[in-house]
Amino acid sequence: MPEDISEESLWCPSCQRSFPPTLSTIRCPSDHLLDVHPPLGNLTGEQWRILFDQRLASPIGLNRSGVWRYRELITPVDVDTTVTFPEGNTPLIASAPVAAWADIDGLALKHEGLNPTGSFKDRGMTAGVTRAKRFGAGVVACASTGNTAASLAAYAAMGGLEAVVLLPAGNVSPGKLAQARAYGARTVSVRGDFDRCLALVQAAGESLDLYLLNSINPYRIAGQQTIVLELLQQLRWAVPDWITFPAGNLGNTAAFGQALRLAHRLGIIDRVPRLAAVQAAGAAPFAHSFTGGFGDLVPVEADTIATAIRIGNPASYSRGVRAIRHTNGVVIDVDDADILAAKSVIDRAGIGCEPASAAAVAGARSLRRTGIIGAGDTVVAVLTGHLLKEPDTFAGSGSGDTVEIGDRLEELVAVLDGPSRRSPGP
Ligand code: F0G
C-alpha cells in the first residue's frame, strides 16, 4: 500500500529522536513509547479555533466526527480511508445533584460513555484502525479489561480487518465480552490478569504479525487527545481549572497531557488546566509513585470492584508522569466504597456511568475536601463508560428491590401504595 503521509513522524520524547511511521514501529530502539507528530502547518491559535468552530457549525463528512474535526492534530487522513462511525460529540453535562455531592459548583461531566460502543475507547480506535488500514495491517489485536476489546472489535469490523482480543478470565463484564463477540472478534480468555494479557499480546504481536492497538500504540493516544480538545471547544476555549478522570493503564493520562501540551504550544489555549488522575485504591501504583515523588513504579497485584481499571502495571507510566508534571497535576486514589457512592449519585441524577468512571467524581470530591480543588474552581470530570457496560454493579437502588407481582390491579396497588411509596410532593 502506498504510504503518502511522508511528513508525519513518530517522536520519542525520551531519546529526543523521530522515526518514520511504519506498521511495526510502536516503540523506539530503546523500548520507549512514541508520540505521533503530524505535520502541523503554521496557523495561529485563533485560526485553529476558528477552523474547528466552523467545522462544528457545518458538520459534513469527516467534520461530523468529534475526533476527525481536529484531524490536523491527530494524523493526516482522507475521507475514503477513514474508519469512523462518527464518534465523539459527547455532551458536557452540568448536574446540580452531582455538583452538590462533590461540593463543587463549577463541576461539569464529560460523558464519554455516549460514544458508539459505550466508552471513550472509540476515539483512539478510529485513529488506530484507520492507521492500521493505511499501513496494510491484516489482523489487529489488544489485551483488554473489556472496553478496548469492544471498541477494537467494532472498528475492525467496520474497516474489514480481523480482530483478536485477550481478556482476563473472570474479570470482564459479560456485556463487554458480548459486544466483542457480536462484532466478530476472536476472543481469548486468559487465566491471568490484564497485565499478563498485555504482556502476552505484545509477545504474540511479534511472532504472529498482529498489529497492536492497545494504548501503547501512538495513534490510539493521538485520537484520545480529542476528549480534551472537544471539552475545551465546548467551553468556548475557556480553560477549566481541573480535569479529573479515572486512570488505569494511563493511556488517557498520556493523551490528555499530549493534547494540552499541543493546544498550548499552538496558542489554542493560553494556559493549561491541572490534571487529576484518579485510581482505585486496590489498583493504584501510579498514585503510590506520585506520593513518593515519582520514583520508580512498583507494580501491584490489582484488585478493585471497578474492573475496567483493575491494572497493576500501567504501560504508559512514563508518558503519564510527563503529563502530570507538565500540568502541575496530581494523582490520588479512592476506595471502592467511594467509587460506588459517586456512581450512585451519578446514576440517580439520571446520567449513569460504569463503576470505573465514577472514580473521576469521587476523586474530585476528595480533592475538594482536602482543599486542593478550591471552592470556586471549575472542574470537568470525565465519565469514561456507559452505565450499561456493567449494569449489575451498583450500591443499591433508591426505589427498592424490583418486586414481582401477578397481573391483577389489586396487587399493583398494594405494592405501589406500600411503605416505599414516594411522597407525591407539594
Ligand atoms: N475507564 C474505563 C471505563 C476504562 O475502560 C478504562 C480502561 C479506563 C477508565 C482507564 O483508562 O487505561 O487509559 O488509564 N480500560 C482499558 C480496556 C484498560 O482494556 O478497556 P486508561
Features:
alpha/beta; 6-stranded mixed β-sheet; 13 helices; 13 strands; binds ligand F0G
Low-confidence segments: none
How many helical stretches? 13
Total strands: the figure is 13
Give the overall pLDDT as a whole number.
94
- Radius of gyration equals 22 Å
Distance between the termini: 69 Å
Query: For the report, how would you describe the main beta sheet?
Result: 6 strands, mixed
Structural class of the secondary elements? alpha/beta
- Principal-axis shape equals globular
Q: How large a portion of the residues is in β-strands, by DSSP E?
A: 5-15%
Q: List all distinct small molecules, including ions and cofactors, that are bound in this structure.
A: ligand F0G
Order of helices and strands: EEEHEHEHEHEHEHEHEHEHHEHHEH
* Neighbour order of strands in the largest sheet: 4-5-13-10-11-12
Helix content: 25-40%
